[in-house]
Amino acid sequence: LNEEEAKGFLRRFVEEFPVTLDEGSPLPVSPLSRKVSPEELHGESLELGLRLLAARGAPAVLSAVLCQEALSQLLQDDLSPFHCPQEAEANREEEQEVVLLVSEAVQRLFLNKLINVALAWHQNFPKPPSPPSRFGCCFVHAIKNTRRKMEDKHVALAEFNQLFGIQDGVERAYYAVFDGHGGVDAATYAATHLHVVLSKQETLQGDAATAFKAAFKCTDDMLRGKAKRERLRSGSTGVVVLIQGQELTVAWLGDSQAMLVRKGQAVTLMDPHKPEREDEKERIEALGGCITFMGCWRVNGTYAVSRAMGDFDQKPYVSGDADCSTIKLQGDEDYVLLACDGFFDAVKPSMVPQLVLDALKQIGEVAQHLVSYAKEAGSSDNITVMLVFLCPAEQLLSKDATTGTAQATQDSTLHGAPQQ
């Protein structure tokens, strides 16, 4: 973390917010929901704070520690004044058991704590947190393509430890792509909450795969409650990578995929869940469901995915159980790529290394190049591509497969560049 850059941002921020927000004043950024459960508050507050700070150009690490400190203060408060009035209808007894908070009011309190932390740090800057130094640049590009709506979401969080106040000496970075269907609600929910739930798993450090499976299940259960309250019907596939120390763990539901490239060669990390995959077909038929071909293979004639978050009208046929795999990093890896099926339906994994190398040598905008290639190859779906480089900083963006020479380039879609 560049201390001068951080202090400069704090100075600008307190000029914009010299005092806390009045009770009746509009929020500078809109909450995701009108009502939020206590277990959703953590994720929605962090999302709100990070969005507010990113829009003002805050350094990523500073954003993470500011939000973490403000949230820890919020969770120590008595939040009962923000409880929603209970519904009085007799046929809604089950919903009455769910405590909900009025989002705008409780998020005003959170933002005021964020402002107060910024004011305090502007006056007396604390010891800078340890930066996520080992992790390389992350490049992201996403397009709606020919679809009516954009239903993909992605998360790039090299500051995982800083955001959750984890200080165990193990470096972590989290990257995810979620591909929604039937609306964007499920993808948005996963992008807001899954990393929060994962951070709370006791098995995270020793057994990331078990932690991921529990986090996916918990997040899906939380989404079920929201879907019931708000009559939501969407679903989302997802692929998530956690780099933890010298291990890379990938967890996935559905047909979004992650792949690793090592020494210019594609390394298979996972097998996507598709209805026509033989073991998925057998699982669904054993439950009494069926797989039919209707332009593509579908579960019970409806969804073209066999595992997803949400899609509660087709559970358990459309399973919410994630699969995971973990590999040891050897230090010679180039990058890991995450993308939705809109990319992988048009581009074979074996083609990726050469496409990336060509993009880095010629134009530099590597994620945009990959998305454009998939579109030109015939993809009409939403397309999201995320590349996380794992090689040393001086070799990040242009590494010749035969000579090993490198040159630095700049990508307009750069996210989470290494902190100095």
- Major sheet, described briefly? 6 strands, antiparallel
Q: Uncertain regions: pLDDT < 50 for 5+ in a row?
A: 401-420
Helix content estimate: 25-40%
What is the chain-wise order of helices and strands? HEHHHEHEEHEHHEEEEHEEEEEHHHEE
State the helix count.
12
- What would CATH call the class of the largest domain? Alpha Beta
Number of strands: 16
Beta-strand level of the residues, as a percent range? 15-25%
Strand order of the largest sheet: 9-8-14-15-3-16
Quickly give the structural class.
Answer: alpha+beta
Catalytic activity: O-phospho-L-seryl-[protein] + H2O = L-seryl-[protein] + phosphate; O-phospho-L-threonyl-[protein] + H2O = L-threonyl-[protein] + phosphate
Organism: Echeneis naucrates
Pfam families: PP2C
Cofactor: Mn(2+); Mg(2+)
Q: Care to describe what's here?
A:
This protein has twelve helices and 16 strands. By secondary structure, it is an alpha+beta fold. The protein has two domains: 3-123, no CATH class; 138-415, Phosphatase 2c, domain 1. A six-stranded antiparallel β-sheet has the order 9-8-14-15-3-16. Strands 4, 5, 6, 7, 12 and 13 form a six-stranded antiparallel β-sheet that branches.
Question: Which terms would index this structure?
Answer:
single chain, 420 residues, alpha+beta, Phosphatase 2c, domain 1, 2 domains, six-stranded antiparallel β-sheet, globular, disordered C terminus
